[in-house]
Amino acid sequence: MTIKKPTYAEIAAKKVKQRDAKFIKEWLVPDDKLPSSEVKDVLKWIQKSGFLSSKEIEITQSNITTILANIKAREWTSVEVTAAFCHRATIAHQLTNCLSEIFFEDALIRAAELDKHYEETGQTVGPLHGLPISLKDNFNVKGQATTLGIVNFCFNPEKFDEDAVLVKILREKGAVFYLKTNVPVAMMMPESNNHIWGNTTNPLNRSLSSGGSSGGEASLIKLRGSPMGVGSDIGGSIRIPASFQNLYAIKPTFGRFPTYGARSGLPGLESVNSVNGPLGNSLDDLEYYCRTVVESEPWFHDAKCIEIPWRKVELPGKLNIAICADDGFIRPTPPIRRAVKIVEDALREDGHDVIEWVPEDHLRLSQIISAFFLSDGGVHVKQETEATGESIFPYMKPYENAVDIPVSELWKLQAERTHLIKKYLDRWNATAAITKNGKPIDAIIMPVTPFAGNPNGKFHDYVGYTSPFNVLDYSVGIFPVTRADKDLDAKDEQSTNYNESDRKIWDDYNPEANHGGAAALQLIGRKFQEEKVIEMMKVVSQLINYSD
Amino acid sequence: MTIKKPTYAEIAAKKVKQRDAKFIKEWLVPDDKLPSSEVKDVLKWIQKSGFLSSKEIEITQSNITTILANIKAREWTSVEVTAAFCHRATIAHQLTNCLSEIFFEDALIRAAELDKHYEETGQTVGPLHGLPISLKDNFNVKGQATTLGIVNFCFNPEKFDEDAVLVKILREKGAVFYLKTNVPVAMMMPESNNHIWGNTTNPLNRSLSSGGSSGGEASLIKLRGSPMGVGSDIGGSIRIPASFQNLYAIKPTFGRFPTYGARSGLPGLESVNSVNGPLGNSLDDLEYYCRTVVESEPWFHDAKCIEIPWRKVELPGKLNIAICADDGFIRPTPPIRRAVKIVEDALREDGHDVIEWVPEDHLRLSQIISAFFLSDGGVHVKQETEATGESIFPYMKPYENAVDIPVSELWKLQAERTHLIKKYLDRWNATAAITKNGKPIDAIIMPVTPFAGNPNGKFHDYVGYTSPFNVLDYSVGIFPVTRADKDLDAKDEQSTNYNESDRKIWDDYNPEANHGGAAALQLIGRKFQEEKVIEMMKVVSQLINYSD
């Protein structure tokens, strides 16, 4: 008798069943009480649903600094806070399918231990004492799996023995881990969809994607199922979902935050490095998180971290800001163009020196990064997906057809990249010749993608607005600006298109379908300028004064 | 009629002839006045020869801080200083064949301009005003060639249009460039020999090699033909020559000093990065140089430089030092063992906490770095050497037989390396458990090679004492300890050997042939700890109080 090898669907079903059994039953909203699939915008649904107590609402609507202060002041316990977020995350998941692993029980035990410690000693264990933090499903957490949306990783290993360095640090500082969030296959697609957990949708408009690869994080945080979370970015994977959900986020320079012990979809790739950073609801939250991580001196625990302390930034009274409204390859759609204009007008009105940034080499930089991603011929991705025979999403086709190039070819690409990043730096410096104060620009502000969210399954495969800044390794922040509005963002007359991709995006833009989608932008600083990027985002955000 | 393609020897001869024509005739010592080849130790020959004036001797025996102070005090002009070093470098070259390109005339013109500027404005142009600095022949200097010891680069290009970023910075700070120094073919051999300029010997014992790849620098500086110079290191190329000449030197962590615009023997290689750093006669000189470069904020001009300022270091009263006397693969020869003992005894006597460092993974790290060097299948090296048909040195044979591996294989090596450097960091931290003050070690002190210089052409092909710290990317300093002495360093009874290489080095050790060779050691700090490494070397050097 032969034992039939399980199909990938069977393996995935088993995994999902095990996960689903861990939800706490009384927190699940009965199916018939959930909004129908016709209801697209579910942003306010949870707090209006009546399924959360007023205290749960108060806790989950709070920013992390408030939560931490209330725990410290003994207004709230960590158990109360953790339970509130577990409860809300459960409902968020019912709305947008944003979770992968859940471990609420471990979290509540941990929270109780922290409460006990605080009660007994009068001391918090650290600056994150009692705070739940959500994690993208690439961070290894002791006792949990890390699947990366690959069926073969469902039970392989079933659990990791050790926390990733970042997780270890956050835990030591008092964080409570309670779940991990959905990602695309191998984290290499612009939508968070895979054969284990399925697709995560966007709470602003559920017919739109949450984006990828940190889509689960962004969808969950937007629904306040998490007060803050950590994503990762190697081509836009923090920024695209953060922008699609109108969140604040940081894509740091590599070496600022520890990456060791995160599972990679492309292990061993170093021509461009994945980084991780926070997604959240406020800039103060991001700043608090970043400062806490950097002040833990991660360079003593991750050999690739760099000893740069968290620095106090004094911004000049008026900023020099370059605006790149259009990268010259794909023209942004109307809501994004409107977002750029809102920001540009506000900056000019406030007296900042706004110049135009004409991108050079963005296309070549984005071609080079794609070549880096595919340079192993997709060997690793194919090996892991073929192991269970899972079917290949169209987004992953390039990995099927990739060539495992010889290292001599890689060296040529790397040498070319070295020249291009030097050229970019020189151009940045050269703006000193055209600013009013004779100093170079402080930042570039530009779109994150050409669109304010894409209908599920229909991301146009162009990450040329984000990926150049992975090659350049600049520090980048995301900030919300507005939401797509079918009346304000009508499809205007078609101009001449740059190319076939541009024409296609133009043709596909549908103000009705895009209605409510987020229009956030990115603010790009030099390398290792995370502090300054946050301060500059504060300036811009105060000027535009937007919140969802 | 066909024009016969010149042979590599003809191309090299033309290049050398052009270079030789640039020497200033009256500075050349007549052949019959030079020491015979039987004279091995030429360290003091120049100052005793009578060919330098007493002022030239005074200038060239001075450290850079004295030179700069005297120029500033108008005791010496930059022209006087530059001429003195050009003169002495000429004789140094006659003794050890240490130079490649020379451009004394340009230097004297530049020095005169600096003197004029100072006279007219009362201001120096910067902290290096008027100081000649020698450069290893991989730094591009505007108007000069960079041959890397490869015949095909003799006239290809004949001159570079632009300074390397480091050269540009040093020039802006006031440095005067007057020559470049010899290297091995592609800088990838442990001796500075090639088919253009030939072999550079060691002034402490000319039957010994100057080492490689910064051998020209080390030989020249030891003869005070340069007050300080810049070398580069990707496997030991600063440290081996500095140790063979008993100099002080710094191999920094990548990103501390700018590297853009240096010609590479392995362009595009990034799995391990070449770094550059100073070689000199005093720690104060090195510190002054490092501070000057870092305070120029090179991160604004080299996209790979990292914004870490030059920091003031407060050392603990007593250091925690780990000593690695033997890496367990090749046993150091008697002079090196004696050098380690001198340092260890001095540290213990002064009350520092000395523990033993048992190296783990050094062999694997050195295998991995070799695999990185060869990972392009030697394609670039072969292409450039085959272009003129130059014959291949035995040291370069691995490049002939290398395989251009697929990137998927490179990723595996890189992933393994990532784990090994984390493991090393954890081991370093774990020393806190065995030190008296419960803090981790401040440094490791260990040999640079197993020998105190090698007879020309007979380097045993093992760089396992240096190359692991390129993979680890730690900051390392070199400091002189003693010189090999045929009476003190007798060949002792052969113990059991670790392996065949170890046995061969043991068999070949000849106290007579090695007499006078330098026995310097390396002091290894964590990443980006160049300031602390210099301070620690000061402590050790004061204790052992050695100078040649």
Summarize the structure.
Chain A is α/β, with parallel strands linked by helices and 548 residues long. The first copy, chain A, is built from 18 helices and 13 strands.
Oligomer: homodimer
**Low-confidence runs of chain A:** none
* Counted beta strands of chain A: 13
Average pLDDT level of chain A: 97
Q: How many distinct folded domains of chain A?
A: 2
Which structural class do the helices and strands of chain A define? alpha/beta
Sheet bearing the most strands of chain A, described?
Answer: 11 strands, mixed
Approximately what portion of the residues of chain A adopt beta-strand conformation?
Answer: 5-15%
Which overall shape of chain A is indicated by the principal axes computed on the Cα atoms?
Answer: globular
> Radius of gyration of chain A, rounded?
22 Å
Distance between the termini of chain A: 60 Å
CATH topology of the largest domain in chain A: Amidase signature (AS) enzymes
Q: In order across it, which strands form the biggest sheet of chain A?
A: 1-3-2-6-8-7-12-13-11-9-10
Q: Residue share in helices of chain A?
A: 25-40%
The top level CATH class name of the largest domain in chain A: Alpha Beta
CATH architecture of the largest domain in chain A: Alpha-Beta Complex
Largest interface, counted with CB-CB under 8 A?
A: A-B, 42 and 42 residues
